[in-house]
Amino acid sequence: MVRLDFWIFGYRILHCESSSDRARLMLALMRRGLPSASFGEQDLLIRERDFLRNKEFIKGQKCEIENNPRGILPLLRRALRQRVSIFALVVAVALNLLASTVIWDVRVSGCERLSESFVEKALESVGVAVGTPWRSFNTGRAETALLAEYPDVGWVSINRLGSIAYVSVREADRPPLVFPEVGYSNVVAASDCIITDISVTSGYAAVKVGEVVKRGDVLISGIPPVGSGGKACHASGSVLGAVDDLISVEIPSDSIEKTYGEGIKSGLSIKILNFSLNIFKIYRNSASECVIIENNENCRLFGKYDIPVTFIHEYSVPYTETRRELEPARLVELASRRMREAILARTERGELIRAQTEGSFGDGGYSMITRVTVIEEVGRDSHITAQ
User: Which of 106, 288, 320, 377 is deepest in the core (most CB within 10 A)?
Assistant: First the structure.
């Protein structure tokens, strides 16, 4: 059975010679985060937009690709080419109005470690799936449920545009491994520093404020001093230290300048109220040599009255890149800007107390070096074995 969103937005049939070839092809698509569906014993279905974006990859697989896409939108595009535009437009508007009652497509962006197919399955588990009625769907509850059930998702936003649910995902930062609070451990220095403050929660202080320590030196001991009568424990606490660091920035003497050419119309869509309909769109294998510009044209009745209809024109503007030499003042300006950003990133979890910057011109451009001193947390757990 063909999925509803495949029927609406179009799909291709990939013919495989055997079921084992189909299994290998399905696995290759899953590794690239491309959803597919079985069709018969030896064929696979893939969405048309996924096929167009990964055409070269799919052509390199062991399968035969059906020449013409199937589905409603591809059929309408072919009808438009045959000058049946009025009929196609009426049918498309009717389908678009019908589509406004349910979700017909889910589009995910922002995935890096997580695959798109994993996120789609996670969304289905919280009710965001093709065929879900919009009236019974609450975006806030779905976002909260997704964050609660899937710790790998750090932030999610679900937005509706016509019949499509656009899902933006930000993956959660993987937490560092933390030594469990069982057994015995010390708190040791993570870097060379001068101790500025120490607060012991459990264990025994091994250093004092003002002492110079090396990386790996014990700051809070989990083993009591000899003769003190104490017991070994999991040492914990907060230790702040003044850490010296070196930040360097290099700016090349030349930069790339873009020269834009004449724009080529690459897409047209109509927006009626909150419903959006794509009339045509030209796909490119790569967007590295052009930029996409949108031009919104609002409609007026008799030239006086605004109506909720907007034509959205898309243009692909090609460009060429040329290198040009930068002036010395410009090099210093760029280096200073990047240095400020680097210092802010370095001191995000600490307090900057000293900074000394120097720069020099070379054959390849301009180099800037800043020596900073930052007060930050310097303690980390280190497991020990009590004898």
Answer: 106
